[in-house]
Design brief:
By secondary structure, the chain is α/β, with parallel strands linked by helices. It has helices at 2-25, 33-36, 50-67, 71-85, 109-114, 121-140, 153-156, 173-180, 191-198, 213-230, 254-258, 321-324, 341-347; strands spanning 94-96, 102-104, 144-148, 187-188, 243-251, 266-274, 281-284, 296-300, 308-313, 330-335, 351-355. Helix 9 (191-198) runs antiparallel to helix 10 (213-230).
Length: 374
């Protein structure tokens, strides 16, 4: 009887390890880029050179690890077991919060959450010098300038963090930068308005890193108000009454993807649909949407004589694009943290907006030398 059981176990084992390869040979690709929110390994190229021959085995191993049959299903099962059974995150980049909330723990987010590494006095002065120099150079050319730091989700919703995760109580880097620029009219701190809005409705996604449309709308109003203090020809921000509140149930966001559960976790997306059609259109790159995550995005309002703008940004501006673009005849959005004088000289904007999310203050150091002398 024991020998029969041993043979059966051996057969089951051989079938189990052969099935993924059999699925690949049958044309099934186990990769799911959208579900995991990352680029999957490409098939290695052999061009006849010794270098490509040497690298081919490792490349093939990497490709198979990302594409073997049933991979996405197995990853999803493993992640669900980790979350539902063991209450543990399958990824060190994601923190499991309360009530289905997920929080980012990479790209400086952990440091920002704990406020463990405050800016030194020279670092604060470097930020202040960089921003004031940009402001002065732009104003010498008649260009309005606005700078803002969107807060991360854990800043607005600390009560949704697990009990095991708590900050040190030290001042955050964002607060340090804001304090060094207190009284400057080009600086936008939207956190008080966001805190107030969070008391009325949810303004961040539960399964994504970012604010939702309703959170972005609050920041948009503050940004446009600051722009108009310097450039009153820019139209006022739209009131909330110009939008219809809608709710859409969709797949989970980027954090759900990082733990392989984008297809399993659902996200209640709180939307703001404009009652009148938006006028701005994406002209670059061709075929892109306003919320496309591309390095350079340009929008225009056909026939408009409104001011022009350049926006230096990161992913938190994605949800701002549909709102901001309605206020300018042309906007060029550049996915970069550093100020770029060359782009300003090329585009001849009337307004420059610079946005950098709070956690990036732990991974990015500004370069005042990149800004020309006023």
């Amino acid at each position: 009887m024991r020998s029969v059981i041993n043979r059966a176990v051996a057969v089951i084992f051989l079938v189990a390890i052969a099935l993924p390869l059999a699925a690949n040979l049958a044309g099934d690709d186990g990769a799911d880029r959208d579900a995991e929110n990352r680029e999957m390994a490409g098939f290695p190229v052999f061009d006849g050179s010794m270098r490509s021959a040497w690298q081919f085995p490792a490349g093939l191993d990497g490709w198979f690890a990302d594409h073997f049959g049933f991979r996405s299903t197995l990853v999803r099962w493993s992640s669900k077991a980790s979350v539902d059974v063991f209450h543990a995150s399958p990824s060190s980049s994601v923190i499991l919060g309360r009530d289905g909330w997920l929080f980012y723990a990479d790209d400086g987010a952990n440091e920002d959450l704990a406020s463990v590494l405050s800016l030194s006095s020279p670092e604060i002065e470097n930020w202040r010098t960089s921003l004031l120099r940009a402001r002065d150079w732009l104003r010498s050319r008649g260009i309005a300038y606005v700078f803002t730091i969107p807060p991360d989700k854990h800043v607005i919703y600390p009560e949704q963090l697990p009990a095991s995760v708590r900050g040190t109580g030290h001042v955050s880097r964002a607060d340090q930068v804001y304090a060094s620029l207190r009284g400057e009219d080009f600086v936008v701190n939207a956190r008080p308005a966001l805190d107030e809005a969070a008391g009325r409705e949810r303004i961040f996604y539960r399964t994504d890193t970012h604010w939702n449309e309703r959170g972005a709308f609050v920041a948009y109003q503050a940004i446009i108000e600051a722009v108009r203090r310097q450039a009153p020809e820019v139209p006022p921000a739209r009131p909330r009454s110009d939008f219809k509140e809608t709710v859409k149930i969709a797949e989970g966001g980027d954090l759900a993807g990082m733990i392989g559960l984008r297809r399993s976790l659902r996200e209640e997306r709180l939307m703001l649909d404009p009652l009148q059609p938006r006028r701005a259109r994406v002209i670059e790159p061709a075929g892109a949407e306003p919320v496309s995550e591309v390095g350079r995005l340009a929008t225009e309002i056909p026939g408009s004589t409104l001011p022009r703008a350049v926006v230096f940004r990161d992913s938190f501006t994605v949800a701002l694009v549909p709102f901001l673009s309605e206020h300018f005849s042309r906007v060029v959005y550049l996915w970069q943290n550093d100020f770029d004088a060359k782009a300003v000289l090329t585009e001849h904007p009337d307004v420059v907006i610079q946005e950098i999310v709070g956690r990036h203050l732990y991974t990015f150091r500004p370069s005042p030398e990149l800004v020309p002398t006023p």
